[in-house]
Design brief:
The longest helix is centred in the last third of the chain and has 22 residues, at 192-213. This protein has nine helices and eight strands. By secondary structure, it is α/β, with parallel strands linked by helices. The protein binds zinc ion.
């Protein structure tokens, strides 16, 4: 599995490097203002949980994440500026990289950073409904601080000794027919091999639930059918001492995916699938 993942990751890296603004190239974080997720003054309305979308799952799992702590990292930030984003920070593997990129957007103007936060808030609701304690690395889409640079995105999960860190993104691949979700893990985590193996197991469980529970298919351009990618260039994952997976929930450059991602009903569907995947991994 590890070998196949690493080879899949190589192709993913090549694809990502060919894209200028999207991908998971530089998520950001903000543990300093971490707050329970449901509150918070954000300009983006949280996707409401539609109990009718999966009533049996919601009813059956009211406490299956009780006692668990989940950190969700909504990638990037609407507070991005060139000066802030281009400052060099450690990349977790001995080099440096920009603090954070601006992220991508759909052709219709729906930004990745806005999606990431809305999806994170929907996921927080779904996890809290299962009894989990949830924290977000950022709770607004208008500020930027050192804490949101990629070298600090894992700090909150590390400090809380979270059971799981989920970093949410959407891709910006320019191939028009390229669509679907993929999952990224790191072979260079501060947590070492044991945490890397757990992260891969988490990724597989998330993939299973996303595939069965949402309208978004597996990526047709990353992972050679596995939708799994291994990348060592992502500070968010490299600095994690806890099991961590970065999600690219769809390709914002693809017309079909770009219609799904702005939809609150899709985000609710995805949130329930991700919560189920986390519960399966921790079960
Ligand atoms: Zn991103």
């Amino acid at each position: 599995m590890r070998d196949s993942l690493r080879s899949a990751g190589l192709s993913g890296l090549l694809v990502c490097l060919s894209v200028t603004s999207g991908c998971a190239a530089a998520p950001a974080v903000e543990q300093a203002t971490a707050v329970p997720t449901n509150s918070v003054g954000t300009t983006i309305p949280p996707a409401s949980v539609d109990a009718s979308a999966s009533p049996s799952a919601a009813a059956a799992s009211a406490t299956d994440l009780s006692g668990r702590t989940i950190v969700i990292d909504p990638g990037h930030t609407g507070g991005w500026t060139s000066k802030w984003g281009t400052q060099k920070v450690p990349n977790g593997i001995g080099g440096t990289k920009p603090c954070n990129s601006s992220g991508t957007a759909t052709n219709g103007g729906y930004s990745e950073h806005a999606y990431n936060l809305a999806q994170a808030q929907a996921l927080a609701e779904a996890l809290e409904a299962r009894g989990a304690t949830v924290r977000l690395t950022r709770t607004d889409d208008s500020t930027a601080s050192a804490d949101l640079c990629v070298n600090h995105r894992a700090d909150l999960a590390n400090e809380l000794q979270a059971d799981v860190l989920i970093s949410i993104h959407a891709d910006g691949n320019t191939g028009k027919s390229n669509r679907g979700f993929h999952l990224i893990v790191s072979p260079s985590m501060k947590g070492g091999t044991a945490v890397e193996d757990k992260s891969e197991a988490l990724a597989v469980d998330l993939r299973t639930k996303l595939e069965s529970g949402t309208a978004m298919p597996r990526s047709n351009y990353i992972g050679k059918g596995t939708a799994l990618s291994v990348r060592s260039d992502l500070g968010t994952l490299n600095f994690a001492k806890r099991p961590a997976v970065m999600l690219e929930m769809g390709n914002m450059m693809n017309v079909t995916d770009a219609a799904l991602l702005p939809s609150a009903s899709f985000r609710t569907q995805a949130a329930q699938a991700l919560a189920a995947g986390i519960a399966q991994y921790l079960g």
